[in-house]
Amino acid sequence: MMNNVTLKNILELLKDGKRLDGRKIDEFRDIEIETNVISKAEGSARVKLGKTEVLVGVKVNLGKPYPDSPDKGVLMTGLELSPMSCSEFESGPPREKAIEISRVIDRTIREGKIIEVSKLCIEAGEKVWMVFVDVYTMNFDGNLIDAATLGAMAALMTAKLPRLENDEVIRTDLKESLPVNGLAVASTFLKVGDKIIVDPTKDEEDASVSRLAVGIKDGNIVALQMGGDLGISDKELDDILERAIKHSKKLLKYLKKK
Q1: Average pLDDT of the chain?
Q2: Which domain does 96 fall in, by range?
């Protein structure tokens, strides 16, 4: 938990539009993206957002489609909050925080129609490719949603489809790319005191009263996730959405370099 001195410093600096790490209110930390970092995965990426670091692996397995979508493949997203990345995370089954964050990432991928699931169908009602996006925290200093979404996109855009030969899944010498249709990014905003900041650190998350994560594809909002004890006014919402669209253009540049 954050001590009162740190909280006071955060609030005092924000009055002048400043932050503990020297950034401006609407400024992201340094971003680094590396792809193809897990040799046994169909796609993978490592993302560093300031001191926050996540590892994302994409695995593609053969499976049966859901009854209500017999001609479409399956997408599943998971997040593991490793105790090694933060002393506040506990080992064991996914907790509420992990489930909430993975749902935001999953919703951004689904609603943005990032994967053309119809192209994952092998035999309607019988065989489809199932895509698993697994996120692991390596180090935590706030804003997992944005870092994990960047990682998921980088891993998906570099992922390859296995081959099916006589009902055997072949994972060597892969050439066919996963059917990815565009890219989406997320920007997370926190209300701390009376200021709205982007890309929060852990201390800033602890000091916040409200949170809004915005998923965007092609300048369009595809996902929203509200959190915190207090709400956000209509004026603040308009400001956040405008800023999120602006940030999405910058974040996409990091992915397009891959």
Answers
A1: 93
A2: 23-256
